[in-house]
Structures are given as C-alpha cells and as structure tokens.
C-alpha cells in the first residue's frame, strides 16, 4: 500500500509537469470541452483488454496441465494488474504464490506462465507498433529486426539438446543441484508455453487485447474533437504501443513518466493536427482509464485473494 501511495504522489507530479508544459489553462479548457460520453467507451475497451488477457492466462494454465476453477483463477489473474506498481511488473510473480496457496501449484510450474504473459505482451506491442513504423524511414526494418531477435531468442531457449546440457551441469553444482528438479520443471513448463502453437495463439490474443486499449486512446482523441479517420487510428495505435514499449524498457513502475511523456510527444508530432493541450489531455485520460483503473481493480483483487488464502 505504501508503494501505491508513493506511485500516486509521483503520478501527480508527472501529470502536473505535463499540464504545465501543455499550458494548464488550455488543458482545463480541453477537459471542459471533452465529450465525456467517450470515457465509458474507453473504459469498456480497457475491460475488454483484461477479459482477453484472462482468456490467455487460462489458456496458458491449460497448456502446462493446470485446471484451476475460474472462481480461483480470475481473482489471482486480476491481482497481477495491481503489480504494475512494481519495477518491470516483477511483482506479477505474486500470481504464482497465490496459485500455490489456492491450488497447490508449484512455483516452478506457474512462474513460466507469468513470464510468458509478459513476453507475449511485448510481442503484441511490437506487432501493433509495426503499423505506424511502416510509414517512417527505417521503421519497417527496425521493427522486423527486433521481432526476429525476440523469436530467435525464444527458439534458442527451446533448443532441447543445449538445455539438457546446461541442466545437467546445474544438477552437479554444489548448491543449485539440490533444486535441480524444480529447475527442470521450470524449463519444461517454459518449453511448452513457448512452442509454436501456444506462442501463436497467445500472441494473437495479446494483440487483439492491446488493440482494445489503442482504440480506447483513439476514442478519447475523438472525444477531444479530432475528426475520425483511419490515419488517426493508425497513429493512435502506433503512439500507444510504442510509448508502452518505452515505459516497459525503463523498468519504472508502470512506466510512469516515461510512458506519459513519450505518448504525449508522439501524439503531438504525429502530424495529425493534435495540439499540445489535446495531446496532454488524451495522455492523462488514457492513463487514468488503462493504468490507474487496473491498479484499483488489481489491489482489490489482491486483497480478496490474500483474505481467501488465509481462510
């Protein structure tokens, strides 16, 4: 809870800086003129994102042979949303702890599910950013290279002969050897999750899920008075996906600061006629809808899951 409060204070500072850079009176005027009917639509799209990611979570659990009832699985999954307040979202590993408490699942089996979740999020954002990069010098080459590096790394991790050799060496190590069975289980779960079939299915689900939040930004831009067009939709998708990747790379809790500033800058310089106050307002609103809503839902679900596990 203390971390959440500190993050909230930091967010107030970040949003105050954005407001000052955008000219605060004009930002207030943009908020007053905003068509607030667009906000429930953006929230519904964000909830759709969570629903699709829960579908992916459930699919991953089945891939590693886990049959967890929805009444246990759903609050555990939602708990991970609250862990965006941790650096690099590493706190999402608490889902493995909750699965063990609720269902007796070994951490070595469930931890790869959490990591596969994060990996397919990354791949989805790369796919979504690719559309905007196509119109920029060197953009397509850069996106394809990054995508190929990610896929190559995944296949390297699935190189069975090399993995067996490394696991054999670890089994003979003085201290690590005692955990060799758990390490082997960790690798086997990862091998299953990163197979071509599961990877393709989960990346498609992830891409559709995150596209929902990109559309939420587009809807907010429409609410600010920008005319509807395919070009605006593509730029909104590109800006949201790329700024999310930038926030993730910084490993800051929720990408706070880095994601907001990069998103506002990308919208401002997209050449779509977005003014400074519109870019700032859209950034603040979409983060309230997509980030802070998730934090609230996640912390409530975490409290419920912890209380249930203690019972």
The H-and-E topology, N to C, reads as HHHHHHHHHHHHH
* Poorly predicted regions: none
Helix percent reads over 70%
SS elements, strand count: 0
Tally the helices: what do you get?
A: 13
Taken as a percent bin, the fraction of beta residues is under 5%
Shape: globular
Q: Could you say which structural class the secondary elements and strand pairing correspond to?
A: mainly alpha
Largest sheet: none
Query: Distance between the terminal alpha carbons, to the nearest Å?
Result: 22 Å
Task: Report the average pLDDT across residues.
Answer: 83
Provide a descriptive summary of the structure in words.
- The chain is an all-alpha fold.
- Helix content is 78%, strand content 0%.
- It has 13 helices and no strands.
- Helix 4 (70-79) crosses helix 13 and helix 6 runs antiparallel to helix 7 (139-157).
- The two termini are 22 Å apart.
Question: How is this fold's topology laid out?
Answer:
Layout (H helix, E strand, L loop, with lengths): L1 H20 L2 H10 L4 H26 L6 H10 L14 H10 L3 H27 L5 H19 L2 H12 L8 H14 L2 H28 L6 H21 L7 H11 L7 H35 L1
Helix pairs in contact: 1-13, 2-13, 3-4, 3-6, 3-10, 3-13, 4-5, 4-13, 5-6, 6-7, 6-9, 6-10, 6-11, 8-9, 10-11, 10-13, 11-12, 12-13
Defining traits:
13 helices, 311 residues, mainly alpha
């Amino acid at each position: 809870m203390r971390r959440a409060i500190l993050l909230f204070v930091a967010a107030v500072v970040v949003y105050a800086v954005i407001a000052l850079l955008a000219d605060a009176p004009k930002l207030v005027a943009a908020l007053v003129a905003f068509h607030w009917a667009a906000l429930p639509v953006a929230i519904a799209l964000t909830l759709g994102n969570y629903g699709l990611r829960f579908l992916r979570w459930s699919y991953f659990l089945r891939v590693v042979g886990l049959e967890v009832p929805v009444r246990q699985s759903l609050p555990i999954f939602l708990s991970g949303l609250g862990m965006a307040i941790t650096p690099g979202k590493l706190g999402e590993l608490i889902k493995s702890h909750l699965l063990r408490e609720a269902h007796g699942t070994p951490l070595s089996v469930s931890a790869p599910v959490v990591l596969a979740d994060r990996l397919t999020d990354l791949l989805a954002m790369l796919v979504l950013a690719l559309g905007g990069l196509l119109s920029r010098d060197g953009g397509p080459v850069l996106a394809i290279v990054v995508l190929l590096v990610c896929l190559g790394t995944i296949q390297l991790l699935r190189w069975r002969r090399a993995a067996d050799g490394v696991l054999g060496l670890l089994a003979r190590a003085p201290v690590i050897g005692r955990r060799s069975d758990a390490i082997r289980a960790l690798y086997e779960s990862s091998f299953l999750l990163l197979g071509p079939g599961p990877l393709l299915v989960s990346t498609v689900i992830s891409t559709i899920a995150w596209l929902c939040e990109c559309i939420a930004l587009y809807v907010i831009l429409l609410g600010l008075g920008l005319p509807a067009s395919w070009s605006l939709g593509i730029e909104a998708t590109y800006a949201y996906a790329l700024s999310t990747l930038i926030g993730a790379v910084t490993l800051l809790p929720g990408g706070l600061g880095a994601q907001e500033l990069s998103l506002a800058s990308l919208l401002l310089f997209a050449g779509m006629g977005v003014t400074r106050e519109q870019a700032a307002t859209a950034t603040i609103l979409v983060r309230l809808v997509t980030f802070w809503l998730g934090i609230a839902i996640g912390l409530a679900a975490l409290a419920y899951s912890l209380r249930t596990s203690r019972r």
